[in-house]
Amino acid sequence: MLCAPARLKYSTSSKNDAKPEQYAEDSSGKKERPPGTYMIWAMEVIGASAAFLYYLHLYTDLLKPKVEERLNPDKYTPFTLVEREQLTKDTDRFRFRINRPRFDDDLEKTVDEIIAQGAWALDVKDHLVQTYRTYTPVDYFVSSTVDEERGLREGYCDLVVKRYPNGSLSRFLHGTRVGDTVEMRGPILTWPFEPNKYRRIYMIAGGTGIAPMFQLIDHVMGQDSKTQISLLYGSQSESDIIYRRQLDDLAKQHSDRLALTYLVDQEPASKDTQLGRPDANSISRFVEGFDKSRDVVLVCGPDPMMAAVSGIRPIGPYQGPLSGVLRDLGFLPNNVFKF
């Protein structure tokens, strides 16, 4: 009588008599894999997957362009957004990692000279639609290298950008997240400052137009110069006054050279602000004592304010005709500069 065994065991024959591996059968007739087969198979799959992902990541990194993040006034360079802060309900501060060029003495000298001369800006490009707009860093620190062991800080520049419904660049920047890169070109000299050339600089700013004013105030106050600065800064409300703490700190440090006047459209909540906006009345009081031969007026703000105060500056290096309140008060084009 033939009796089929309940289970078949693996062959114990010698290597010379080895036969194809057999699987055991249970009582239902189904074949079972040998112990550990599933574990070995799973480990092989995991190992192969890990190796694939590693080499894919390595290959992707090799293809990815290296972000140099070094200033160049002649070409656009990608810079990484490292920090973002909401300043008002519709305005954010964007901090980008940014450094001086290295291994190029001529380019490094050019960048240093531009920054040292006065107010400077960057062309910021929206790579999605290939358009750009010029923004002035409100604050910056430009280093040549990053070396924490030697006490050198990482370079940065802060852009203050208000979101406008129809502004392509402002919408593009407000759509970025920390870690994203944005292409920028610069520095671009916008207004050179010569120590002691002017007795007093009168600044009229509105909203994010404070950016070039703050940059220049910080620059001038750090110079060995007797030039004084008076700032008339208009905002919608006290909460919309951008960089107020920093401005107040500078005014305390340089009380003999820096005077601040804050204007707000809404009822002021403190004694340090005045109700109003940059108009004929406030500006005529502000520029009282202006000396046409020794003083200058700088203006920057939203288009409605610019149109009312000095006339809108056209795109490009041109100032455009002087109009508005300043022309009515008798100022000449060489007395006024529009950012």
Proportion of residues in β-strands: 25-35%
**Strand arrangement, major sheet:** 6-5-9-3-4-8-7
How many extended strands? 15
State the end-to-end distance.
Answer: 107 Å
**What does the main sheet amount to?**
7 strands, antiparallel
Classify the fold: give the CATH topology of the largest domain.
Rossmann fold
- The CATH first-level class of the largest domain comes to Alpha Beta
| Element pattern in H and E | EEHEEHEEEEHEEHEHEEHEHHE
Helical content class: 25-40%
How many discrete domains? Answer: 2
**Global morphology:** elongated
Radius of gyration (CA) equals 33 Å
Q: List the total number of helices.
A: 8
Please state the average pLDDT score. 84
What's the CATH H-level homologous superfamily of the largest domain? Nucleotide-binding domain of ferredoxin-NADP reductase (FNR) module
Uncertain segments: 1-25, 57-65
Helix- and strand-based class?
A: alpha/beta
Instruction: Please give the CATH architecture of the largest domain.
Output: 3-Layer(aba) Sandwich
